[in-house]
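ZP: hey, is the tryptophan complex queued? I don't see it on the tracker
AM: it wasn't, my bad. submitting now with these inputs:
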Amino acid sequence: MTEKKRILTGIRPTGSLHLGHYAGALENWLRLQSDYECYFLIADYQVSDYADDIARVRDSVWEVALDWLAVGLNPESGHFVIESLVPEHAELTTWLSWFLPLGMLQRNPTLKAEMADFGKKSVPVAFFTYPVMQVANILMPRAHLVPVGEDQLPHIEMTRELARRFNRQFKEVFPEPEGLVGRVPRLVGVDGQAKMSKSLNNAIYLKDDAKTVTQKVMSMFTPRMSPTDPGDPEITPAFMYHEAFNSDRAEVEDLKDRYRKGAVGDAEVKRKLAAAINTLLDPIRERRATYAANMRLVREALEYGTNQGRAIARETMEMVRDALDLGYLGKY
Ligand code: TRP
C-alpha cells in the first residue's frame, strides 16, 4: 500500500462558518477527505486582529470545530489541529523567515488588501508576518495539496517558493504544494457586495435556522427596478446562489428564462432559493445539534487531531534541524 498524500488547510477562529466557506473550500475538503491524509488547522496564532477579543477567539475554536463536524468532516481520518497547541509552528516560522525576502511579503496582494482594511488602526507585527506562519502551517505536515478560497493563493505561491529555496539550499524536505480553489471561488454577499464575509455582515451561516435563512434571502439585494423588467441572472445575487446551491437544475433554468423576460417576480426567485438553501443546510443543522448536545465528542476530536498534528510536526522539525545542521551540542 502506498502512503496517502497529505492535505493541510485551515481557518482562522473568528466566528461561525458561512456559505462562502462551504462553496469556496469546505466542499473540496469533504470530497477529498478520504483520499488524502488531512490536517485541518484552527489557526489561532493568526488572529492578532482580534487581540482585544480573545474570548471570541476561544469560543470560535469550538464553533469552527462544530461546523466542521456538522458539514461531515470525519475527525478520525482528518485531524482537527489547534495551531498554538503545536508550538512547532512558531519555531518553523522563525527558521523560514530567514529565507523570505521582505519584498516578497510586502508585495503579497492578499496581505496588502487586508492591511489596507485596518485603515487608521495600527497593524500588529504578527499580522504583517502571518503569511510566513501560513507557509509554516503548510510545510509542517509536508503537505501536497492545499484546498482554500481564492484569496489564499498568493500565500501558497510563497509556500512553493520557500519550499524550493529550502530544498535547494539544504535538503529535499518539503514537497511543493498545490493550491486548489473550490467550485465557487468567491461568493457574493446577500447585500450584493463582492464577498460574503462576517465583517461585512452579509453572510448566511451554516448554523442559521431556516427562518433566519429565509429572512436573509428575502431581503437580498436585487438589481432590477421592477418585476416586469427583463433581468440579467449573471449579475443578480439570488441567481448566483441558485447556481451555487440549488440542485434542481430544471427549476433554475426555468427561473432564469422567465427572469430574462421579466416574467417572474423576485419574491418567487427568492422563495425557491431559500427552500434550496434550507434543503442543503438541514442535514448540516441536524448533525450540528447532535454534536452540540455532546461537546465531549468535539473535545475528543480536537484533542486527538492536535496530538496527531504535534506528532508529524516533531518529525518535520527533526528533518529541518538535520537539514540546517543545527546539532550544536553534538560537537563536543
Ligand atoms: N489565512 C487563512 C484564511 O484566512 C487561514 C489559514 C491559516 C490557512 N493557516 C492556513 C489556510 C494554512 C490554508 C493553509 O482563510
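AM: back. The longest strand covers residues 6-11.
ZP: great, adding it to the tracker
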